[in-house]
Amino acid sequence: MLPLPRSVTWGAGEFELTARTGLSVGEGLDGVAHWLRGALGPALDRWLPPAGADGTIALAVDSALPASGYLLVVTRDGVTLLGGDPAGVFHGAQTLRQLLPPAAYRRAPVADGPWRIPAVTVRDAPRYGWRGCMLDVARHFMPKADVLRFVDLLAAHKLNVLHLHLTDDQGWRVEIPGYPLLTEVGGWRAESMVGSRQHGRFDGRPHGGYYTADDLREIVGYAAARFVTVVPEIDLPGHTQSAVAAYPWLAPGHGPVGVRTGWGLSPHGIDLTDDTLEFCRNVLDEVCALFPGEFIGIGGDECPPDQPLDARRRFGRALVDHLATHGRRAYAWDEILEGGAPRGVAVAAWRGPGVTRAAAEAGHDVVACPDLSTYLDYRQSDHADEPVPVGTVLTVDDVYAFDPATLAPDHPERLLGAQCNVWTEHMPTTRAVDYMVFPRLCAFAEVVWNSGRHADFRDRLAEHLPRLDAMGVEYRPEAGPLPWQRRPDAAGWPRDRADRESELDALVNAPR
Predict the structure, then answer these.
(1) How far apart (Å, rounded) are the C-alpha atoms in residues 28 and 506?
(2) 400 conformational bin, left if phi > 0, alpha if psi -120 to 50, beta if neither
(3) For residue 358, what are the CA distances in angstroms to 125, 249, 407, 408?
(4) What whole-number distance in Å separates Cα of residue 148 and Cα of residue 145?
């Protein structure tokens, strides 16, 4: 099982799922039951009717269990799955699915069975409340169907936050009433850079796309049914060239600019004026209407040097206060700490362990996502055939060695959890995302679920890979990329770990 539950006690015998196995559904669990029938029915060719002559799978909530935790008991006679809340029952159902053969993950029958579940008692609960993944759909747009698939993959690994990076210099991906040019102009670019920015190569091919309001409502609802919260991010006030391209009055001193076609930082950020602040408030109003979760991402990172720190601080505080009028909390990258972050901001700490500690000591809730442990766009080996090798080497074992608890040891109550980040400059397709994300996300999922310190992890990962195969995930093989996963046309820019650590230290400690 992966992530490994807290306690597993194997019993004698097994329970066989037949066409007459029933599903008993406790109060408040209709959604979980609907998901379980849909998850198992197509592959097993049986749909778990309400009552069964050949034993029952019983779902119920038991408030004595911890939130998001569960108790799963399988005997020869049936299955009992109790959760501290519906989320706990859902997580237990994911574990139940893992106890079946990998063919249970397919969308149509490929085997006749029998479908047997070993007798076992599993007691389990998550380590952190924030078990997340950031997906950048701004640099390369991911169509809605692929986002829904990605949600399923997160849920299968008991991750519960999808941080959706919706806007950046290279594209604006969310429809905003009153500002149609944000998507009509800002939603596409004339071409894209090929490989690392140091090489200055472009493909000459337009790229674009955006989500309608109904698309995003669908994504949010689909994720909620799988107990995944979508945290949207509108990156402000830097990383806004796509907005400036759509509405030049946001930065009149820059002159007309197009949507950025290259990677790296843009000098074309919005001006920090009352007019642009009103624009940002209007955008956030619409975002709050689409995303009902507690947190709304406001970026705050890598701002152009012509945006003075004091002005950025005032601007950021105004956005935080505005979100508070909606009953929401701002979520921002750790640059928001520079000069003192507004109270109530949750911080995504990406620039090393010291920033996580500093955010917690300053009284901020923090999500740990240090790039040297959690950036899944970084290369997976030092072999020359890795596609677009950028960043430092970050192997499955490196991700598994990550321990968020060590980053805020004096203020553990401030550590909401952790997330991995998937920046997509070099991932133009879902196949490329699969390669870069898996199986490293499997290692990360265990870290945030139960600590990730288990000697048998590699053995369990090997048993987990056939499940990924069944779900159609084109993960990186242990031996390295397959021929079609390589990118000889796109040169990278590998980094040495010590050099990157020095660079981060300079960034964090630079005078402001």
Answers:
(1) 52
(2) alpha
(3) 28, 37, 9, 8
(4) 5
Task: Point out the catalytic residue in the list 16, 184, 286, 302.
Answer: 302
Separation between Cα atoms, residue 434 and residue 430, nearest integer Å: 6
Q: How far apart are CA 83 and CA 36, in angstroms?
A: 15
Cα dist from 53 to 19, 78, 117, 183, 426, whole Å = 9, 11, 17, 55, 53
Task: Report the b/e string of 384-403 with b at 16+ CB within 10 A.
Answer: eebbbbbbbbbbbebbbebe
Arithmetic mean of pLDDT, 299-310: 91
- Nearest alpha-carbon partner for 467 in 132, 95, 122: 95
Give tens-digit pLDDT for 80-107.
999 999 999 999 999 999 999 999 999 9
State yes or no: cis peptide before 114, omega within 30 of 0.
Answer: yes
**Residue 511 confidence class, pLDDT cut points 50, 70, 90:** low
Q: Are 17 and 39 in contact (CB under 8 A)?
A: no
506 Cβ contact list (under 8 Å, min separation 6): none
3-state secondary structure 115-156: EEEEEEEEEECCCCCEEEEEEECCCCCCCHHHHHHHHHHHHH
384 Cα distance to chain centroid: 28
* CA–CA gap between residue 229 and residue 149 (Å, rounded): 15
pTM over 0.85: yes
Supply 308's token pair. 């003075």
Residue 446 a catalytic site member: no
- In this predicted model, what pLDDT tens digit does every residue of 322-349 receive, in sequence order? 999 999 999 999 999 998 888 999 999 9
3-state secondary structure string, 160-214? Answer: CEEEEECEECCEECECCCCCCHHHHCCCEECCCECCCHHHCCECCCCEECCECHH
- Work out whether the CA dihedral 361, 365, 370, 373 comes out positive or negative: positive
pLDDT in tens, 492-506: 999 999 999 998 888
Alpha carbon distance 481, 338 (integer Å):
40
Q: What pLDDT, on the 0 to 100 scale, is given for residue 509? A: 77
The residue count for the chain: 512
As beta bridge partners, residue 477 has none
Residue position matching structure tokens 């020359």: 384
CA 333 – CA 301 distance, rounded (Å): 6
Contacts of 44 (CB under 8 A, 6+ apart): 17, 100, 104, 109, 113, 115
- Residue keyed to tokens 């192997």: 395
Distances (CA, A) of 152 to 39, 209, 332, 362, 411: 10, 22, 26, 36, 33
Q: Which domains are present in the chain?
A: 7-124 (3.30.379.10), 130-425+495-509 (3.20.20.80)
